[in-house]
């Protein structure tokens, strides 16, 4: 590096650059396995998973009309939007509901999140 060149430390994205977040993924049916993804701000957890080849059931196609995209937030709940009444209603139907459950299709990343994907074999496939 030339003497007159300064190393610029990593910083927040500049105007016009996309803001991205880290989605850490844990799997109920694969204990010990972790995947770390990067997703653009505002991307739903469902979309981020599917884009990266990670299966999450989504019977209604991501329009908040089923509960098959149920996920459990392990960290970063504050980095998701508040739950809508429609999400709350659909989530009531989810299998294995917890206090930190959300619908993957309705949970849009606003910061880093760690998510646990429930067993997917309950849907009759993988
Ligand atoms: S895919 Fe149906 S509610 Fe999310």
- Summarize model confidence as the mean pLDDT: 90
Name given to the CATH architecture: Roll
Integer-rounded radius of gyration = 17 Å
> CATH H-level name... which superfamily?
Beta-grasp domain
Amount of helix: 10-25%
Structural class: alpha+beta
What is the terminal-to-terminal distance?
50 Å
The CATH topology is given as Ubiquitin-like (UB roll)
Biggest β-sheet strands, sense, barrel: 5 strands, mixed
SSE series: EEHEHEE
Ligand kinds? FE2/S2 (inorganic) cluster
Low-pLDDT segments, ≥5 res: none
Helix run count: 2
Identify the strand order in the major beta sheet: 2-1-5-3-4
- What top-tier CATH class fits best? Alpha Beta
Tally of individual domains = 1
- The general outline is globular
Beta-strand segment tally = 5
Please report which band the strand proportion falls in: under 5%, 5-15%, 15-25%, 25-35%, 35-45% or over 45%.
15-25%
Based on the model shown, name its key terms.
globular, alpha+beta, Ubiquitin-like (UB roll), 126 residues, binds FE2/S2 (inorganic) cluster
Describe the overall structure.
The protein has 126 residues and is α+β, with helices and mostly antiparallel strands. It has a single domain, classed as Beta-grasp domain (Ubiquitin-like (UB roll)). The protein is built from two helices and five strands. The model has no long low-confidence stretch (mean pLDDT 90). It binds FE2/S2 (inorganic) cluster. FE2/S2 (inorganic) cluster is lined by residues 58-60, 62, 64-69, 90, 103, 105.
State the gist of this model.
Helix content is 11%, strand content 23%.
């Amino acid at each position: 590096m030339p003497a007159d060149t300064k190393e610029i430390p990593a910083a927040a994205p500049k105007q016009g650059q996309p803001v991205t977040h880290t989605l850490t993924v844990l799997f109920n049916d694969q204990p010990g396995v972790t995947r770390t993804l990067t997703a653009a701000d505002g991307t739903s957890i469902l979309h981020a998973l599917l884009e990266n080849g990670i299966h999450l059931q989504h019977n209604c196609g991501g329009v908040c009309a089923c509960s098959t995209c149920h996920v459990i937030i392990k960290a970063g709940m504050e980095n998701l939007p508040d739950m809508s009444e429609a999400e709350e209603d659909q989530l009531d139907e989810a299998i294995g509901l917890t206090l930190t459950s959300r619908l993957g299709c309705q949970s849009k990343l606003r910061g880093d999140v760690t998510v646990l994907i429930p067993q997917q074999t309950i849907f009759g496939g993988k």
